[in-house]
What does this fold into?
Amino acid sequence: MPELPEVENVRNGLKQLITGKTITSVRVLWTNIIKDPSVTEFKQKIAGQKIEDIHRRGKFLLFILSDDVVISHLRMEGKYRLEGPGVPLSKHTHVIFELDTKEELRYLDVRKFGKMSLVEKEKLSSHPSLKDLGPEPTEESLETAHLVEAFKKTGRPVKACLLDQKIVAGIGNIYADEILYDAYVHPEKKGNELNSKEIKRLRDSIVSIMNKAVEMGGTTIRTYANAFGAQGSFQSHLRVYGKTGESCHRCHHTIQKIKVAQRGTHFCPECQKSGRG
DNA sequence: CAAGAGGCCTGTTAGC
DNA sequence: TGCTAACAGGCCTCTT
It folds into this structure.
């Protein structure tokens, strides 16, 4: 379930493996992966373009080509693999970028939830997938004042706010739970009920958890590895996600699982009572 | 406008 | 044991 740290790790691997190579043609085996433009146009425009760089924005991977940019979202299970010619296609391969090196960059996705778009460079920041994204969850980009502004006008649970990519880009279900635990905030507490101390703590927890997860190469759950050794180790630092029934590291009460905003949500009912002072 | 529900998918797991 | 149903999850679209 790639969130920002996993996507960043994939980006690093891809950057080393395919920068400078040219895409000679594209094969699309499951057309729903291609969001826009049409599959025909997607294939035609990409053919012949060189991969100049790989960037990331939130959970989106950005393949910077000669003229255009491929915006790729891995959703839950999307993966890229670089394979030599003639290597049999695995079951869940849906898009294949053939390279001038005779290698193939293959997109695999068990659940077929991932999406790709192609957009001209000049129109990148106005693309619907990117234009409303909030700031990156970093020391430089994420200001407490921005969160204060976003939280004070909503009655949604804070967990839903953290998952809202318009407020902060890149946080998914795993890190949202970890951030709330780190900040001693109850996931169901409403945005407009948070005091300034809580928001400050949340901001600091967002930055520190995401930063640490990136440093550790992300979180690997379900033992899914990929072709680039992009297997993370943050799973050993998880405190609440997937820990239902285990005892809290801080107070030894039992970690509970509930539904918040239709998502499985793990928290410690003792240290996340509602936010303490 | 905001916020919630449904849909997209299939491998895994819980329950009968 | 063998089967089915529920679940997981990010984001878009539709409905309220």
